[in-house]
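Troubleshooting log. The previous run stalled partway through. Resubmitting the same two chains, unchanged.
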Amino acid sequence: MNLKEEIILPKKNLLDVNLKEIWQYKDLLFLFVRRDFVATYKQTVLGPLWFIIQPIFTTLIFTLIFSKLASIPTDGLPPILFYMCGITCWNYFSESLSKTSNTFTTNANIFGKVYFPRLIVPISIIISNMFKFIIQGFIFLLVFIYYYFNGFPITPNITIAALPFLLLIMAGLGLGFGILISSLTTKYRDFQFLVIFGIQLFMYATPIVYPLSLAQEKLGSYNWIALANPMSSIIEAIKYAFLGQGQFSLLHLSYSFIFMIILLIVGIITFNKVEQNFMDTV
Amino acid sequence: MIQISKVSKMYRLGQIGATTLSDDLKRFWFKIRGKENPFLKIGEINNRENNGGNYVWALKDISLNVKKGEVIGIIGKNGAGKSTLLKLLSKVTRPSTGKIISRGKTASLLEVGTGFHQELSGRENIYLNGAILGMTKNEIKDKIDEIIDFSGCKRYIDSPVKRYSSGMFVRLAFAVAAHLEPDILIVDEVLAVGDAEFQKKAIGKMQNIASKGSRTVLFVSHNMTSIKALCNRAVLMENGKIVKDGNPSEIINYYLNTNTEVSYTKEWDKSNRPLSYQNLELLKIWISNKDNKLNTTLSVDEDFLVNIDYEVTEENSKIGLNVILHDSNQNIISSSINNHEENFYHQKHPKGVFRSQCLIPGKLFNSGTYYISIFMFGENFSDGKLLEFLLKIEIEDGILVRRDYHGEYQGVLRPLFKWVTKSLN
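Second attempt completed without errors. Output:
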């Protein structure tokens, strides 16, 4: 019998992501996704309805405050549709980020007792959030269809085809930021507090409650801030694809894509470094 | 199968805060200049009672070769590094220095029920836990009926595990683990779960795994009986090092000899009485003086009593006891059987709690360290259970036998023999 030989050394190669091993544990990945889904809303009356209640109410509140009270323009789009599109996408990113960012701390007791590729956990979070996003996206589509057939000026176009690609970048950004922060959190919990309000601030740096065009117009020479944010171009592109307003800029999207790739590499290096010994410091 | 060469593991003690940050910066500074981690040099031998530096070696230069099919028991005091070694082998954390080579699929069982989710049903948890331990979905599917049967939780298998009693939870968790089929199995003190009946089942299952000869098992336990029953090799660890390696009975004897603290009384919990033979269950063994009070200062001059408290769990039981004394090297020096107690021995006794006392006379043994073992038997002498080295006692010097002699007495006895001298003139 030919048995697999394994060598355990003090340090492993930092870019060594054993994709084959992750593939071997795909059943575990699937079970984690399932667990997240099944267990989240057990013993609640509304159950999975919570998935859609949250974006609907946020949309209503945003409409009330940012559109009605503060009169921030929405590129001429119906405010509800405008906010809902942004919120649904943002939710995916922010939840992926915040949940993956405690990978090590919340799973310390499992990680301390048994080995499996640690990346399974953040990846499973990204996937289960993807399902949640699809459910929420479905609600958005219903609202979208309502507005469309009632003659509102929305012009969905062929760029919708780029949606999977845009989602991929968002997932990558969420994963990248998440694992990077989770790696830093194992030793210094300061980052946990940073994440909580950091995500809130991050949202205002992303064109969710305002259109990018407005930011560029009003911020003048500061408009690089809005563009430096890799999430901006994605949100804008999705809005453009479905609603016909926004910016679909290949230049900005490729910036986001490259940003995501670099972030993922840095994230994985840090994650790999931390996962080897984090049990000693967590 | 497993080759461990010069493996060490260092831990940092204390809180993590600003000091850690400064250490990290220092380490980084050494690293960019291409120097070795400065903190690896200042580690100390792990001794929990010592005050000292912030860095400690939990393991130091461990080398061990494990062959295929070996079942190795790792023993040692708490803090000797046993669990750390298992953690390194199961890849939960990495060594600070050294190298481990292993061949084959490893499964580790450092805890039962890792990753169980309270809200999920028993069945769902079997899948989840199985996958965490490295089984694929199909493997679990093939074994699920067997696992459920073994756990004895069939009726509750579709209820969430938060409704389970703690015993059921543990049994289900162990059942999953028991059905792993790795080449190398790493087990940390997990057999001590559940009630006596389930423990028997668990040990049986382990024996089954071990006896097949195709699995390599590393097994940490404080229970010497299970080490003896399961292992064909034992390793003794002390302060992060391997101090002895060899035949389980030898190693266990050595360990007990060097590590039993002096004790004049030992008591066993009602719920957990491992020391039983047939219908006799040992409750307590203790040394007293003649007033039946616990005695911890024995002297060469005075009598003392070995008290054996036990429960008879069946009507009409016959009770046989033998008190065995050993010297400090654990050689037997005497046995005393209760067959002189005419109206007790070989009589039938009702259920209940009894105390048998064996009087060890003064002016017989020398000062020094002695061990006491008990042999419990029922109908006949040859059939019983030996409970070794239950007590380690210290008999101190006295003046009565000694009189005006101030030197040393040799041997294990210091009896007061009678002297008579006559003039032959």
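Takeaways: The CA atoms of residues 131 and 351 of chain B lie 49 Å apart. Chain B has eight helices and 20 strands.
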